[in-house]
Amino acid sequence: MKTERLLILFIIMFAALRTFASPAALTYQGRILKTDGTPLQYANVNFLFQILDPSGTCLIYQEQVSGYNMVNSGGVFDVPIGSGSVQYPTTGSFTILDAFNNTKSFTCGTCSASGASYSCSNASGTYNGSAGDNRKLRVQFFDGSGWQTISPDSIVRSVPFAGFADSAQKLGTNTASDFVLKAEVNSNTTCDSGSFLTWNATTKQFGCAGVSGASGGTVTNVSSANSYLTVANGSATPLLTLNVGTGANTVAAGNDSRFTDSRAPNGSAGGDLSGTYPNPTVAKINGQDVDSTAPTAGQVLKFASSKWSPATLTTSDISGLSTALSGLVTQSQFPASCAANQTLTFISPSGSFTCSAIAIGESNITYSSHAQNTFLAAPTSGSGTPTFRTIASSDLPAGIMTGTGTTNYIPYYSSASTFANSPLSVNSGKVGVNTTSSPAALTVVPSNNVATVLLGDPTSNGVNQTQSLSQVPAYTTDTPFSLIGGNSYLDRDEVLIGGQNDGGSFAQAQAAVQNIIFFTTPTKNTLQGTERMRITSQGNVGIGTNSPAYKLQIKGGILAVKGDVFSANGPSAESVASFDKEGAGGVAINMFASSTNNASIYFGDTAQAQQGYIRYRTDDTVANQYMSMQVNSAERMRITSTGNVGIGTTAPAAKLTVAGAIVSTPPAPFTGATVDVSTSNTQLLTSVGGSAITLNNLAHGGTYTLVIQDTTSRAYTFTGCNTSKYSPPNQATTAGTHSVYAILSVYNGTNYDCYITWSTGFQ
Description:
- The structure is a single chain.
- With 763 residues, the chain is mainly β.
- Among the domains are: 3-177; 407-445, no CATH class; 593-663, no CATH class; 670-762.
- Helices cover 1% and strands 40% of the residues.
């Protein structure tokens, strides 16, 4: 980006020099306009400030201010110099104000750009400041596309050099508070000859005083008046020696035998003791306070809440005691008392015992051996203890039933109060009629040439109008099953279920029945029925065919109709639904509805029918026809007669109209340099690993957004694009930040051209 014009107001501001430090920063203000006259309003502008020698050839100081937000600024900026990242000098505590020290020698530096930042090092030249030298200020800024230099350099004259006035507040590294003014010594009066400098701790001032006896002056000689202290070189540099020992003329040592009695300590106690010797008080234990409350009997000294206090021991005070006691039974788990006829019963949920009455279940009662045909019963008369005895007549109810029977037969009353065998028998859980050896759950053996199972009215008009499972008199000996109804034999309605059919009459099965065949008898007074349905031994069901090859085979159409059908595949005067053929070898489901009505397939459950449907709206006016889909009892999608598709709307105005949000499930972030853009128009790349990114499955007119969170500074290119056009021109991204690329792909007849806009510096 080039700048057409640049307005810069450079201001250096310092507070008045007093006892506080001057601000170690300058203020740089201005406005940046683009070549088209619009202001620069980039969200992540970097400023680079360089202080150079008067000739502009020696770099003394370089600082970078990063991430300056100029959004909604109108291009106006106000940047402090001295608060950014110092890039040169690379070591030490050099500040912006040090660059204006004309009494110092400076080592020149050199710096090179790396994306949106610089790296610096020492060069070979030096610059020695001298009184009156000025400095040059060179400013660059990074607007997202590259570094732009503000030209020409600004000459820094006398005002910024006032910033180095911090030297007036220091002598070397010492501030004014580290020194004493001469006028403050001895109240600014002259000291007499031979006086010494004195210090008044109360007024915190220096004064003068002469030698007065032994209270002041210069020590000229040191001597000792006894043998306890020896002095060497007393007139020059005295060396004093204290003589300690156990003999005469020495200061007594700790084991001196001259100590003949004890010496009680005195003075104030210290450490964990308080008060005075010889009777101090224990105030602390190992530095922790002891509570002044007197303990009572049974208490111990316990540390809690940052002090020692008297307390009674609990189970939690002893490590592991609660665990050791957790499995033991406590007094609180038992009831206070139980009745004489009760026992203790443990209740698991509460973990306690309760009183329960004593009871014994029957399964827990055992008896010794007793004689056969006896039972435990009360006396036959009166009251008494139960005993094992035989049954007595008084134990039975009034009335007598007599008779004999055969094993496995179910008895019946052959006469009043008399039992006899019935035709029913039960053997191994199988029931037989007229047989005791039933091979199945129920077996019926005919007797006396009567019907095995009788269905119908055998007495109407005095004519036998029924058939049986094993007998059809005068017609056949093996009609498995027949249903006959009606008022007379001649007008009866009959349905026959048989095992075999010869096409005209029923034939006797010579072997086990292989098929179950359903017949109807359209001609009265005849058994020449017509086969309507068959179940084969393979389990195939045929309707309209006697040789079904599938589990269900129907010869002819399946029709659900309201009204009359005019043709097999054409519409009718009423609604029609049918399964039918379509052409040679084809099949179709026909849904015909009368004009201005609906042809629908509904879906639902047993609780709520027709919750969903697929519907076609018929109408003589083609423009009014449409197909729709309902879900959860509401229309969700519609296709109009013109082919427009609407989702969430019943009046789509375009090939696809969606009323509401369109949300796609985001793909997983990509790691690496290959992206399949067909999975989503927005892709996240967390780690690229290189500067070339491969784009797979581009589409004409496709717009894709790549968010790159790889913070390495790179100039990215895109494989998969025949040509790539960048705006702004392609260059390295800003290190340590995220970048966003918006890509429009256009098919040129052979491959794809890509138009790319991008931005970096997101942080």
